[in-house]
Amino acid sequence: MKTRTLLLLSVGCGLLILLAGGVKLFQVANDRTDVPVLELGDEALVGDMSVVVNAIRADPSGVEVDIEMAGVAGATVLDGWSMLGDGELSEPSGAVADGACDTTTVVPDGGAAVRCTLRFPAVEAEQYVAYQRGGELRRWAP
Length: 142
Prior knowledge:
Number of strands: 9
Strand order of the largest sheet: 1-9-8-5-6
């Protein structure tokens, strides 16, 4: 084959690849993956844990989130929680206080739910509180 023929074939293959990429771009441009945001009080099964966020309260000292969790006995309550506020992701404080979830708070045996309050740093605007477990994620918005 002549060099000119090979160059024309390579340019033709390049154009076909470019065309296929453009078609794929138009296909994925219309794909929507909406992440559901739950209402306060809605129960969600996240992995093997049943979780409810009852209230989200913000004040100058921080954000308090009232939760209920049941499922895996002995699981530490603080693990897997996060809050998006002011464009930053933060984890709950493990500070010991009356009614607050701390590093020693665990889910009880027998399917009973633990109820406590998560404490997050103060933010101007909290977007959502999230819980992740077993590769699943659920979000609650105030």
